[in-house]
C-alpha cells in the first residue's frame, strides 16, 4: 500500500489533545493507504508514548514513531515558548532535514478533530511549484492591527495572504532543492521577537508567492 507520512510536534501538555487528533485522523483514514505517523518532541514521558502507541495499534494501516528532537535545540530562540505556542513549532521549519526519506509530508497540530480522510490533500498539486500548502483565510479579520508597528506595509500585505500552519502539506523535495530551510530558520531566529504567529508568519514571509492552498 502507498504510504502517507504525517508528523505532529507538541510537548507533554498536549498529550490528551494528541490522542483525540490522532484517533480522529485514523478513524477516517482510507484503508487503501498506510499512514506513517511521527511525533517530534523533547519531553513526552515514556508512559504517555506507550498510551498513544496503543491507540495507534488499533488501526491495521498505521504505525507511529516518536523522535526526540533535543539535538536540534541549538539556539536560545527556540528554547522558549511564546504566548500559547510551545517551542516545538520550530520543528516544522526543519522537517526537510528531519525527514530526508520523504519528498512531501503532512504536518498537523493536535488541536484538530478530523472529519474526513487526509489522503486527498496529500496528493494535491503534483505539478505545482510550492513550498507549503495549507488552509487559506476563510473569514475577513482585523488581525493586521496586531502587526503594527513592527511590520512594514509590504510585509503586512503578504501576511494577509498567509495559510494556517495548523495543517500543512510540506513539499520537502522543493524545500531541499532550493535551500529554503536555511532561509526559514535564519529568518525565524532573527525575527522571533516580532513574529505574532511564529512559524506561520515565517513561512509566508519567506516563501511567498510559492504558497498553495489545500482542503
Automatic annotation (TrEMBL):
Keywords tagged on the record: Glycosyltransferase, Metal-binding, Transferase
Molecular function terms, GO-annotated: glycosyltransferase activity; metal ion binding
InterPro entries assigned: Glyco_trans_8, Glycosyltrans_8_dom-fam, Nucleotide-diphossugar_trans
Superkingdom: Bacteria
Keyword check for GTP-binding: no
Tagged with keyword Metal-binding: yes
UniProt xrefs under PANTHER family: GLYCOSYLTRANSFERASE 8 DOMAIN-CONTAINING PROTEIN, LIPOPOLYSACCHARIDE 1,3-GALACTOSYLTRANSFERASE
Protein name: Glycosyltransferase
Species of the source: Bacteroides reticulotermitis JCM 10512
